[in-house]
């Protein structure tokens, strides 16, 4: 194809790829590739971009209140835990979050199933657990249920927004033992109890209030509340759709694309993949266990002193937490959850002298997160006294993402 002629069946992407096929894809070759493309397609102005913005704001003073209950759950080892459950008579099965299943330390039974939701969306489940649920009010009530372990969140926080205290003066609810006394505060849902449980806990009494107030249904868990309610707190949702198309950015993307989707793996990538397939396994609680893919049997990062720098970072973190008590409280919750979920345990004294690597950690705050606003980041790139980090010794796998 000459510079001034075009093949009607070819695309710009095809032609650009053809122009660059003799240049290896490395960071150092980017400028050379950029010059070739500019010569072919002409100069590109810095502001050569298309931008489209659409914004919309909606406000509402009503909230859909779904029926929730605080229930006591007993596992096979006799441990009791209070969980927040959504009572959903539209569900044919019961579900529990992976977090709650790990918290209960319950052993699951491998299963294979597909959960179909609204719009025919599907989620795969691979584990089921047997649980005994009890009422916080009726000591003689208990129910054995099977629940599927959901690898993702059951739902968003419920209710979707805080219900104002000024609206909690409904006279028809006075004196009732509520199944969920925290119904007015957004909170995590640990279980979803379906129609079979709903039928088992249902009692005859139903109390209806004035418009804008919830209905109350008597159950073995207490009174559950549900319905569309008026809320004095105005909920605002702002949606901004922004589309920015920049030619420079498109060429960056073109340069990063690998035209051969079936490229041959490097020796390191192939070794990393083999280590994964040979060592990955799943325990009785449904957790995946994977061996770290070290480049060599000789691990140098354990020979350097990593403890001193980890202690210095810990001291810096403690000073930060002393200045910010709210962050300290949230960070302590994260660490406590690690212990409860068996993600972290105290190192036995007899193992303190063994070769090991200490990882510094710090807090990262994300206020926009709907779930965990504070999380812990462990720095595996931190080097020891011999200038070697554990990340330096790990193989890097190829990008498995498919588009």
From TrEMBL:
InterPro entries: DUF1759, Peptidase_aspartic_dom_sf. Pfam families: DUF1759. It comes from the Eukaryota. Gene3D superfamilies: Acid Proteases. This is Peptidase A2 domain-containing protein. It comes from Bombyx mori (Silk moth).
């Amino acid at each position: 194809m000459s510079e001034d002629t075009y093949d009607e069946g070819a695309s710009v992407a095809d032609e650009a790829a053809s122009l660059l096929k003799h240049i290896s894809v490395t960071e150092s070759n980017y400028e050379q590739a950029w010059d070739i493309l500019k010569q072919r397609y002409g100069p590109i102005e810095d502001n050569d971009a298309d931008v489209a913005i659409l914004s919309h704001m909606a406000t509402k003073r009503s909230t859909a209140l779904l029926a929730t209950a605080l229930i006591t759950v007993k596992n096979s080892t006799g441990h009791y835990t209070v969980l927040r459950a959504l009572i959903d008579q539209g569900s044919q099965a019961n579900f529990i979050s992976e977090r709650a299943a790990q918290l209960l330390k319950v052993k699951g039974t491998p299963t294979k199933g597909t959960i179909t939701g609204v719009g025919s969306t599907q989620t795969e489940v691979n584990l089921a657990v047997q649980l005994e649920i009890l009422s916080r009010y009726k000591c003689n009530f208990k129910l054995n249920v099977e629940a599927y372990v959901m690898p993702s969140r059951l739902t968003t926080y419920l209710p979707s927004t805080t219900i104002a205290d000024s609206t909690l003066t409904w006279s028809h609810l006075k004196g009732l033992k509520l199944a969920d006394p925290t119904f007015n505060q957004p909170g995590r849902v640990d279980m979803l109890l379906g129609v079979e449980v709903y039928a088992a806990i249902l009692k005859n009494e139903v109390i209806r209030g004035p418009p804008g107030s919830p209905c109350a249904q008597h159950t073995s868990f207490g009174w559950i509340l549900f319905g569309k309610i008026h809320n004095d707190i105005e909920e605002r949702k702002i949606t901004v759709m922004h589309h920015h198309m920049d030619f420079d950015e498109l060429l960056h993307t073109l340069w990063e694309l690998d035209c051969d989707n079936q490229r041959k793996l490097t020796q390191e990538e192939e070794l990393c993949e083999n280590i994964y397939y040979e060592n990955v396994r799943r325990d009785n609680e449904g957790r995946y266990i994977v061996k770290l893919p070290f480049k060599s049997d000789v691990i140098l990062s354990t020979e350097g002193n990593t403890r001193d720098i980890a202690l210095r970072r810990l001291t810096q973190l403690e000073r930060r937490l002393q200045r910010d008590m709210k962050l300290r409280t949230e960070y302590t919750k994260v660490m406590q959850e690690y212990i409860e979920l068996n993600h972290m345990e105290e190192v036995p004294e007899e193992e303190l002298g063994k070769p090991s690597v200490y990882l510094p950690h710090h807090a990262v705050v994300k206020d926009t997160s709907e779930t965990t606003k504070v999380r812990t980041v462990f720095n595996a790139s931190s080097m020891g006294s011999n200038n070697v980090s554990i990340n330096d010794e790990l193989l890097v796998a190829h990008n498995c993402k498919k588009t």
